[in-house]
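Data deposition worksheet. Section B asks for the primary sequence of the deposited chain exactly as it was used as input, without tags or linkers unless they were present during the calculation. Section C holds the resulting structure in token form. Section D is free text for depositor observations; keep each observation to a single sentence. Incomplete worksheets are returned to the depositor.
Section A, Depositor: J.P.
Section B:
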Amino acid sequence: MQAWRVHENGEPGEVMRLERTERPTPGDGQVLLKVRAANINFPDALLCRGQYQVRPPLPFTPGVEICGETPDGRRVIANPALPHGGFAEYAVADAAALLPAPEALDDAEAAALHIGYQTGWFGLHRRARLEAGETLLVHAAAGGVGSAAVQLGKAAGATVIGVVGGAEKAAVARDLGCDVVVDRRGQDVVAAVKEATGGRGADVIYDPVGGQAYAQSAKVVAFEGRIVVVGFASGSIPSPALNHALVKNYSILGLHWGLYNTKNPKLVQHCHEQLTELAARGAIRPLVSERVPLEGAAAAVQRVADGVTTGRVAVIPSPESSSPEPSSQNGAAA
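Section C:
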């Protein structure tokens, strides 16, 4: 089969190599999956750089989220077991953690439903207890993680303010359903949010960015508001002033979704059932902005790493029967 493999850490476009290799052999409790679509996540770039909390042995295949097909023909959503990730024609995953792919979604959309939407659901509902009628502020609202939070917020009956960078992303955020869109490149985020909320601020703030975005959040969070910290795509990890949280009476909530897979996996299943129902009635639908062939995976991962994409980018492996002869090429040539 063909698979992208990383032999040394660095930028995805430089260190990912497309190679012919043997199909992975499932271990105990694992299953071999034919990859129908693999969604690109920011952690894939961090894996390539050696900066993720999980560091698989070299060489490894990145790709942490797929829609795959089981040997008996079932279409499932899975997090591949590294080092045999999803940017390949076949991957392996823990059999007990497989989730049925929603019938309402195609392969690329199903692949994109899992990590971002599970994170959004747990962040907004389990951690922040978002209520209908509240105001939700989403940073990076046009991105893969942010777009999921926007849709989930609207489905919950919240007024959603989306913060984006640039006119193109602003248009995407409006199409997603944001009630107010703030372009951080041309607007004062703090002033715009205060104006949009009559000076009250946002009840829930969803922050996958960190850095300056968190500083803005602390200035616009409402009385009894909740800031949900889900990542640091900016590369800057803020140091919150706890005295500020005290005098303004707001909460800072951390969310590491992956912990639920080991601490309370039943909640992951419950969340998937909720997401499947929302997808079935059209309340949510992953925004897949690009579908690229397997050969284009390295360049696509680099674009996600550089923050120039909107929504989700999905890698669609071609059938193995049409794969070219054995080859090895790096990302720059892909």
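Section D:
The two ends are 17 Å apart (CA to CA).
Residues 320-329 have pLDDT under 50 and may be disordered.
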